[in-house]
Description:
The complex is a heterodimer.
Chain A: E1 3-5, E2 10-14, E3 19-21, E4 24-26, E5 33-39, E6 46-52, E7 60-61, E8 64-69, E9 74-79, E10 88-95, E11 104-106, E12 110-115
Parallel strand pairs in A: 2-12
Antiparallel strand pairs in A: 1-4, 3-9, 5-6, 5-10, 7-8, 8-9, 10-11, 10-12
Chain B: E1 4-7, E2 10-13, E3 19-25, E4 31-37, E5 43-51, E6 54-57, E7 64-66, E8 76-78, E9 87-94, E10 103-104, E11 108-112
Parallel strand pairs in B: 2-11
Antiparallel strand pairs in B: 1-3, 3-8, 4-5, 4-9, 5-6, 7-8, 9-10, 9-11
Amino acid sequence: AQKITQTQPGMFVQEKEAVTLDCTYDTSDQSYGLFWYKQPSSGEMIFLIYQGSYDEQNATEGRYSLNFQKARKSANLVISASQLGDSAMYFCAMREPRGAASKLTFGTGTRLQVTL
Amino acid sequence: DGGITQSPKYLFRKEGQNVTLSCEQNLNHDAMYWYRQDPGQGLRLIYYSQIVNDFQKGDIAEGYSVSREKKESFPLTVTSAQKNPTAFYLCASSRDPGSGGYTFGSGTRLTVV
């Protein structure tokens, strides 16, 4: 069974600083996908970044980058130049292999608070 | 603009009553999903559907039912058999069941009173 572990229930970061949110995963599949979502207090889930298991380069999307270490089974999210609007819950998720129902398994999340 | 609409945003239910949460998408996506979120926990899969008139149980399907009569609609019924229904419910859809890219609705917060 797939499992996602986020060990940081809460994190603080000063505005304009970088922050790393940790995510480790466990799967026996060779083909999988890793996602990060942001959930503000309003509740919607906002897609941030995606990394495929066969992608050789770490994914980047603007201020977001995914530090993918396949051998260690980690997929940490790095947010550079934090902004006050980054304060939210952040979830790491993993997708089952292609050809399956594409279900996502989520971690328990990390609450990020950006301070002045 | 395409997207997923969940209604209502807030819902109150008396114990012993069934209640139906609406989820509509205009993205022409084949796959749709229902997730439940409790405080301090991630999202857990209730039911999913890859095509019309077909759906499968997720990890926590007991006490819930769904239907998929139209591609655009995937309503979730929380039955009286669900012992602890107070939670935040999120609906999602995906164009390609193998791609894993999801679009989420804004959620329904259900409270049992």
